[in-house]
Amino acid sequence: MKIIDFTRVLAGPHCTKVLRDLGADITKIEPPAGDTGRGGVPHINGMSVYYTQQNAGKRNLSIDLNWPEAREIVIDMCREADVIVENFRPGTLARFGLGYEQVRAVNPKIVYVSMSGYGQTGAWRNRPAFAPTIHAETGLTSIVEQHFGEALTELRGDACSHADIYTGLEGAIAVLAALHHRQRTGEGQHVDVAMAATMLAVNERAGAQLSGIDTFGEPTALAAPDSHIYALSDGRKITIAGSPIYSPTFVRYCGMMRRTDLLRDPRFASAPLRRENLAVLLAEVRAWILTFSDLEELQAQVSEASLALGSVRSTEEFAASEWAREWGAVVDIDDRGGSTTRMPGAPWKFSHSVLPPPGVPSFQGEDNTVVLSGRGIAPSVIEDMRKRRVILSRKTPRGAFDD
């Protein structure tokens, strides 16, 4: 599967990264100004680790589409592509003759995926969109505020760019579905993926929130997001999935602690009362947890009550765990300086399919000659394009630095 990747920063690159990791052949078209993601720190040998995570294994053609010959080259590449993925503001690529209808005219079977904040049509189509603003608009930031309440002294967005990553995944799913449709019918199509719609779709609380139904103090969505953090006697921290405010989970908490007396305690007789007396209830739980000096013993008793326990770890600690080693959850990728850097591995294991090995991240324009000569363009023409800056290559992004 040949994919032309016009994406930058995160949602689009993550979409094409997923497809690359599943075996697709990706050529990334990068403007002379460079993908903003290349500026993400830290850098190793001029290569952003942030950029590497999303773009390793993709060929890189850095070309200025303001030049007519550049547009001719890229539209010719689109003639042979199976899929095009882009995440510019709506209409941007059409100004260069590379919009869906323009590409469809030369390649009717193309699967063309556009990702943007609010979709290709409608009143908000031209609004700039980044993960924090989409989180704010679609309810996630409000959920964070409600979740932490008074403990949140300064309201901030989430630490991770969920809107970008989820949109990238939804884009990859759309590519696979559209390719399946094409295989059955011979038809290509345009797929419009909106970050805002994605964040509603992946919000497991949205249905309950939109229903307007009063839950009379019971947490929504099975209370998993309301899980508390507890400390062991040696200072290690754990979480137990589920809030003891939620009635079914409260019963399991009582069974876990062998404290059936709490089921009869009037302070905890209902969800509103447990919420009102939560500090007292959590004090009982924390005191019980402190009686354990062995994590495995505690985990066994928690599991006995059909609850799940997890240790609070840093990413580095998790990467060093026995499970991560067994799964191959962390892989080494060429750092372009004679060594390697660690990156997340594949989240899948197939019983028959063999996934490609981790790829190497390309410097900006590193594959210009390979891509262009592969299209029959003479070396003298390529050199002339380089001199006139129709194509560009650089090892260090503008404003970045080497370690």
Number of strands: 13
Q: Provide the residue-averaged pLDDT.
A: 92
> Biggest β-sheet, characterized?
6 strands, parallel
Portion in helices: 25-40%
Blueprint of the fold:
Blueprint: E1 2-5, H1 11-21, E2 25-30, E3 43-44, E4 47-48, H2 49-55, E5 59-62, H3 68-79, E6 83-86, H4 100-106, E7 111-116, H5 131-138, H6 140-148, H7 162-185, E8 189-194, H8 195-201, H9 206-211, E9 228-231, E10 237-240, H10 247-256, H11 271-276, H12 278-289, H13 295-304, E11 309-311, H14 315-319, H15 322-327, E12 330-334, E13 340-344, H16 368-373, H17 379-387
Parallel strand pairs: 1-2, 1-6, 2-5, 6-7, 7-8
Antiparallel strand pairs: 3-4, 9-10, 10-11, 12-13
How would you describe what is shown here?
The protein has 17 helices and 13 strands. It has helices spanning 11-21, 49-55, 68-79, 100-106, 131-138, 140-148, 162-185, 195-201, 206-211, 247-256, 271-276, 278-289, 295-304, 315-319, 322-327, 368-373, 379-387; strands spanning 2-5, 25-30, 43-44, 47-48, 59-62, 83-86, 111-116, 189-194, 228-231, 237-240, 309-311, 330-334, 340-344. A 6-stranded parallel beta sheet has the order 5-2-1-6-7-8, sandwiched between helices. A 3-stranded antiparallel beta sheet has the order 9-10-11. The longest helix has 24 residues, at 162-185. The protein is elongated and about 85 Å long.
